[in-house]
Specification:
This protein has about 750 residues and is of the alpha+beta class. Helices cover about 25% and strands about 25% of the residues. It is globular and about 80 Å long.
C-alpha cells in the first residue's frame, strides 16, 4: 500500500493520523513486521474455574512435536494436576515434562531450580505474572528468592532444553536437580564436577498401573553447565550429602553450587533421551552444540514461524488472530516425537529399535479434527505418525488407544482405525497398507483377552489390553450389552463408526467381502435406538432395555462415556442420512437438534459433540450451523488464561477452532467430505505442501463481521456452490472458495442433499 502526500508542509498530527489510518487498514495483514508466532499466547488454557476442568495447557518452550517440553513448575504435577497453573504465585522449579494431558501421567521427567543462600532440596520462590514472558519458543520469569532477585529463561529444541539463570551477588548460589520424586520407581543421578556435568535417569511412569510393566523404561538426561562447580553433592528426601557423586533411589537429586556476582548468568544445556545417557548426550551435541542461548532461541522462533505460517489469515480482531494462532500452536504439540536420530525406545516391547516413532496419541479426542488438520498443515509427518502406530501393533500386538507411553486402556474404541482410514482416503501414502489392514482388521474382529468376564471399568488396573472391550457381544448381538460391559452404548456407537473406517481400508486392499461385512456392521448403532424415548439406550444381553441404567439427566450415566444420552444421541457420523431417517426424517431430526442446543444439553468442552453444530447442514438448514458454530467459537475460546472451556486433549479443542474459523469441518473422518460452517476471517490461505497437494487453498469471506455470520452465496473456483459441502480434492487441488456474508440467514442457500460419505 502507498499513500500519496502533497508537497505542502504536513503537521506532525496529520502525519500521525495518516499512519494510524494505514495501521488500521493493514492491521489484518500483520504490518509492522508481526509474524504468526507473535500472535500466540501460550497462557491461554493454563487455568480455569476448577482445579482440573480447564484447558490443561502449560506455557511451554518447545518445538513442534517436541519430545520434551520445558515449562515453569508452579506445583508438583501428577495425574489430574499439570505442572503450571496461572492461579499460582510461586515457582518450585523448571521441568522437562512428557505429561501429554492433564488427565494423563508424566513419565521420565526431570526438573531443576536455582537458589541462593541456604541450600534446600525443595524451595519455592514468589513471582508476579507481569514479570513473565511466554512464547512458543521462549519463556522468561523474574522471581524472588527470600528477597533475592533471580531470573530464569528457557528455550528448547526437539530433544533438548537450554536454560539461562541470572543470579544476584551471592557467596552461595545453587542449581538443584530433581532426578526422581516417585516412591514407586527409582531414579539415579551422577555428578561430574570436572566435566561440569550432571547425568542421570528417572524411571517414573505415573500411569504405570494402567499398562504392562516396562523394566527397561527410563527417561535419561545430561546437564552441562557453563560455570565450574565450587561444590556439589546429592540428596535423598530431606537428607543432603555434600561431596557425594552418585545417588540411586526414590526422591533423589543433586546440586551444583558456586559464588555469583550481581547479574551473573549461568547457563545449563540439557539433553534428554529414552534410550540411554549416551544418547541424551548425543542429542544435546546435535541440537545445542554451543553456548549461544540467543541462537537457539532464534532458531526455535524460525521453526515455529514456518509451521504456524502454513495458514495465513487476514482480517478479524486481534483477539481472534491470537485465538487462531494459539490454537495452531496447541495443535502442533502432539503426537510427540519419540525417535532419536534413527532409533527409538518402544514402550510396547520394552526394547530399542531402528526407525522413526511418535507417541502420546489422545486418539479418542484427536481422530475428530486434530489428525484431519495435520493432513493439511503437516502432511509430511503423517506417514511417520501412522507408521509409529503400526510399529506399536507389531511390537505389542495391538495399536494403542491412548499410549502414555504404552497401553493405558484409557477411553473406548480403536480410533487409530479412523486416523489411518482418513489419511488413506485423502491421498496420504508412505506407510505399509497391508500391515495397516492387518492391525485394523484385528481391532474389528478379535476380542481382547478375558472379554466375556471383564467389564472393562474406566482406569481399572492392567490385566490385558482392552482394544474393543465388549467386542465378543457386539459381534454376536449387534450391540454391547450393559449387563456385560461398562459404557455399553458409547462402545456400540463408536465400534460402529470404527467399522466404517476399517471398511475403507478393506476396500483399499481389495477385500470386498470384508468391506461389505464391516459396512453392514457400521449400521449397528440402530440396534440401540429407542423410538419411544427418542434416544440411544442401554440394552441387556437378552434384548430388553436396561431400565436401571436409564435417565436423561445431565450428569454422566451408566452406559455412556463421559456423558449421557444427549452426549451420544447424534454421534453416528458415518451414516448421518441413516441417523436422520431413524429419527423420523429431517423435520424431526432438526427439532431434536434444536432441543439439544436450546435445552443446554450441548457440551463443547468435551469431544463427542464436536461435530453436532454442523449437522444442520445435512438436514437442509445450514444457516443454523452457521449460527451455532459462531456461537460456540465465541463462548468457548477467549484470549485469556481461562480461555478454553475444556481440556484441549492434545490439540482437539484447538483443531476444532481452526477448522471452524476457516469455514469448514471434517464431520466424518474416513471420508473426503467437509461440512461448511461460517468463516471467521476475510481471507485465509492454507499453504499446502507435499506430493498430493497442488497449490494453496484460499477461503475469502466478503463482508464478514461479527454480525455478518450468515452465508448469502458461495462459489468454488468461480462456479456456484449450492450445497454446504466440499470434498478434500477441492482443497488438495488448490482452489478458491468465496463466500458472501450477511447479517440475516439466507434460507435458500445450501438446502440440497448431502453427498455420500463413502
Amino acid at each position: 500500500m502507498s499513500v500519496a502526500i502533497k508537497s505542502r508542509p504536513v503537521s506532525f498530527s496529520a502525519m500521525l493520523m495518516a499512519l494510524c489510518c494505514m495501521v488500521n487498514l493493514c492491521g489484518a495483514l500483520n504490518v509492522l513486521g508481526q509474524e504468526p508466532v507473535d500472535d500466540v499466547n501460550p497462557m491461554i488454557g493454563t487455568t480455569g474455574p476448577t482445579e482440573n476442568d480447564y484447558g490443561g495447557m502449560i506455557p511451554g518452550a518447545a518445538t513442534p512435536f517436541g519430545m520434551t517440553h520445558w515449562t515453569a513448575m508452579t506445583r508438583e504435577n501428577k495425574i489430574s494436576v499439570y505442572s503450571y497453573n496461572h492461579k499460582d504465585t510461586t515457582i518450585q522449579g523448571f521441568i522437562g515434562t512428557h505429561q501429554p494431558a492433564i488427565w494423563m501421567g508424566d513419565y521420565g521427567q526431570v526438573s531443576l531450580m536455582p537458589q541462593v543462600g541456604e541450600l534446600k532440596t525443595a524451595k519455592k520462590s514468589s513471582f508476579r505474572h507481569q514479570d513473565e514472558i511466554s512464547t512458543p519458543y521462549y519463556y522468561a520469569l523474574k522471581m524472588d528468592d527470600e528477597g533475592q532477585p533471580l531470573k530464569a529463561e528457557l528455550t528448547a529444541t526437539t530433544r533438548a532444553g537450554f536454560l539461562r539463570f541470572t543470579f544476584p551477588a551471592s557467596r552461595a548460589s545453587h542449581i538443584v536437580v530433581t532426578a526422581n520424586r516417585s516412591r514407586q520407581f527409582e531414579g539415579f543421578i551422577q555428578i561430574n564436577p570436572q566435566g561440569r556435568e550432571i547425568t542421570g535417569y528417572n524411571a517414573d511412569r505415573m500411569s504405570s498401573e494402567l499398562g504392562p510393566p516396562l523394566p527397561n523404561f527410563k527417561g535419561y538426561f545430561v546437564m552441562q553447565f557453563s560455570k565450574p562447580f565450587t561444590s556439589s553433592g546429592t540428596w535423598e528426601g530431606d537428607d543432603i550429602h555434600p561431596g557425594s557423586s552418585r545417588q540411586r533411589g526414590h526422591l533423589v537429586g543433586g546440586y551444583a553450587s558456586f559464588p555469583t556476582t550481581q547479574g551473573e548468568t549461568v547457563e545449563v544445556r540439557i539433553g534428554t533421551s529414552f534410550i540411554s545417557i549416551e544418547q541424551a548426550r548425543d542429542n544435546l551435541r546435535r541440537e545445542i552444540p554451543g553456548w549461544n542461548f540467543d541462537r537457539v532461541k532464534a532458531q526455535s522462533r524460525r521453526i515455529w514461524n514456518e509451521a504456524l505460517g502454513r495458514i495465513r489469515i487476514q482480517g478479524g480482531s486481534q483477539d481472534e488472530r491470537v485465538n487462531f494462532y494459539t490454537a495452531m500452536y496447541h495443535s502442533l504439540l502432539f503426537p510427540r516425537t519419540f525417535s532419536e536420530y534413527g532409533r527409538y525406545y518402544s514402550a510396547f516391547d520394552d526394547r530399542v529399535h531402528n526407525g522413526v516413532s511418535y507417541n502420546d496419541y489422545s486418539l479418542w479426542d484427536t481422530f475428530r479434527a486434530e489428525h484431519p488438520l495435520l493432513l493439511l498443515i503437516q502432511p509430511e509427518r503423517v506417514p511417520g505418525m501412522i507408521t509409529a502406530l503400526l510399529q506399536m501393533y507389531t511390537e505389542g500386538g495391538w495399536m494403542p488407544k491412548w499410549p502414555n507411553p504404552t497401553y493405558s486402556n484409557i477411553m473406548i474404541g480403536t480410533h487409530a482405525d479412523s486416523v489411518i482410514a482418513d489419511a488413506y482416503v485423502k491421498g496420504i501414502r508412505g506407510f505399509d497398507l497391508k500391515t495397516a489392514y492387518a492391525a485394523t482388521y484385528k481391532d474389528a474382529m478379535t476380542p481382547p483377552d478375558g472379554d466375556t468376564h471383564n467389564r472393562w471399568l474406566d482406569r481399572a488396573p492392567w490385566t490385558a489390553f482392552e482394544a474393543r472391550g465388549g467386542l465378543t457381544w457386539y459381534k454376536s448381538l449387534g450391540y454391547v450389552p450393559q449387563d456385560k460391559t461398562d459404557e455399553s452404548v458409547s462402545r456400540t456407537l463408536e465400534f460402529a463408526y470404527d467399522d466404517f473406517c476399517v471398511a475403507q481400508i478393506a476396500k483399499a486392499v481389495g477385500k470386498r467381502g470384508d468391506y461389505e461385512l464391516l459396512m453392514k456392521r457400521s449400521r449397528n448403532y440402530k440396534n440401540l435406538y429407542d423410538p419411544v424415548k427418542g434416544f440411544m439406550r442401554p440394552k441387556k444381553a437378552d434384548g430388553s432395555w436396561d431400565e436401571e441404567s436409564w435417565s436423561t439427566r445431565e450428569e454422566r450415566m451408566p452406559g455412556f462415556t463421559e456423558g449421557g444420552p444427549w452426549t451420544y444421541l447424534f454421534c453416528e457420523m458415518q451414516d448421518i442420512p441413516g441417523m436422520i431417517a431413524l429419527m423420523g426424517g429431517r423435520e424431526n431430526f432438526v427439532a431434536k437438534l434444536d432441543e439439544n442446543f436450546s435445552g443446554g444439553h450441548y457440551r463443547h468442552s468435551n469431544e463427542p459433540g464436536h461435530h453436532y453444530t454442523y449437522l444442520y447442514d445435512y438436514a437442509g438448514q445450514p444457516w443454523k450451523t452457521q449460527e451455532k458454530v459462531r456461537e460456540a467459537m465465541v463462548l468457548n475460546y477467549r484470549n485469556a488464561p481461562d480461555g478454553l472451556s475444556g481440556n484441549d486433549d492434545c490439540g482437539q479443542m484447538s483443531a476444532w477452532y481452526i477448522f471452524s474459523a476457516l469455514g469448514f469441518y471434517p464431520v466424518t473422518p474416513g471420508s473426503t467430505l467437509y461440512a461448511i460452517g461460517t468463516p471467521l476471517f476475510e481471507r485465509a490461505t492454507i499453504l499446502l505442501k507435499g506430493p498430493y497437494r497442488k497449490g494453496p487453498f484460499t477461503v475469502i469471506a466478503k463482508h464478514q463481521s461479527p454480525q455478518n455470520k450468515y452465508i448469502q452465496s458461495a462459489t468454488l473456483n468461480g462456479k456456484p456452490l449450492t450445497v454446504p459441502f466440499i470434498r478434500h480434492a477441492d482443497i488438495a487441488n488448490g482452489s478458491t472458495l468465496v463466500f458472501v456474508m450477511g447479517a440475516q440467514p439466507n434460507k435458500n442457500w445450501g438446502r440440497g442433499r448431502a453427498p455420500r460419505t463413502e
